[in-house]
Amino acid sequence: MAIEGPQLPVGTQVVLRVAGPDDAGGTAQRGATGRIGGVTGDGRYEVRLVDGRGTVARRDQLSLRTAYQDDAIGLEAPDGDLLVRERTIYAAVVGSRAFGLDTDASDTDTRGVYVAPTETFWSLAKPPTHVDGPEPEWFSWEVERFCELALKANPNLLEVLHSPLVVTCTPLGEELLDLRAAFLSQLAYQTYSGYVLSQFKKLEADFRRDGAPKWKHVMHLIRLLLSARTLLADGRLVVDVGADRERLLQVKAGALPWDEVERWRLDLHEQLDRALTKTMLPATPDVARVDTWLRSVRQRSIGDA
Predict the structure, then answer these.
(1) Which residue in 117, 145, 185, 282 is deepest, having the highest Cβ count within 10 Å?
(2) Looking at the predicted structure, is the pLDDT value of residue 76 above 80?
(3) Does 132 have pLDDT greater than 60?
(4) 205 band by pLDDT with thresholds 50, 70 and 90
(5) Residues of the chain with CATH 2.30.30
(6) Class of domain 80-184+285-300
(7) What confidence tens digit (pLDDT) does each residue in 15-47 have?
(8) Where in the chain are all domains bearing CATH 3.30.460?
(9) What would the CATH number be for the domain defined by 13-72?
């Protein structure tokens, strides 16, 4: 029998929703905690309890440990899929299609921002800060979480605001776009270059172990540095890679030697260092402006539940 829904990985902490027999001739009580040990031939989960006993249970007889107490007291958060469908204020295509690096096989990745009704924050069951779905390759953030991450110069969030491929934009979405400059700051130097440095260490380990890194990932890291260079030098975020497209696709295909790619990366880091000394970007983002707008959104969303 196949397991319905995403399979629980071995080691996942779970709680039994119903009592059942254990492997010691006794009973595993409802509420007992354990870890997933594997899957039986009939599709049930093997659960190793904290005291060493074992039992088996169907997926609908298990709760993730972190969710069990919320379920037990009846806390039910607002439906995230419904929030995305009905309260998205802005969404855009990101990834390869927005970067100008797409091929016939490229996915269409969409990222969006939704506004939960203000009253939902007054409940014990808060609205989700992000939602994966409801459509494939669609991910959204609640507006407060989006603003928080974008103010920290998270590249993924900034690229959503600057994507040339807008899918949805309501009047509130237009207001968010008008705030794009408020999110830009010199923090981008640390977030972009710091992420690339940390990822290249892992890629170098892959190269030593396997003889080749994940070239697609290498390409996107170089792309990030190119984007950061323009941002620091010109004060604007450009998502499309433009004239660098063919060379980046060569990287993706593994057609450039690793040493050449590494020289390109190091040169871009040097360019970032020089650009930082002359950048017109402020040291920190305009938090007050973004916060004032968010407060106004919350005020205007009262009564929308």
Answers:
(1) 185
(2) no
(3) yes
(4) confident
(5) 13-72
(6) alpha beta
(7) 999 999 999 999 999 989 999 999 998 889 999
(8) 80-184+285-300
(9) 2.30.30
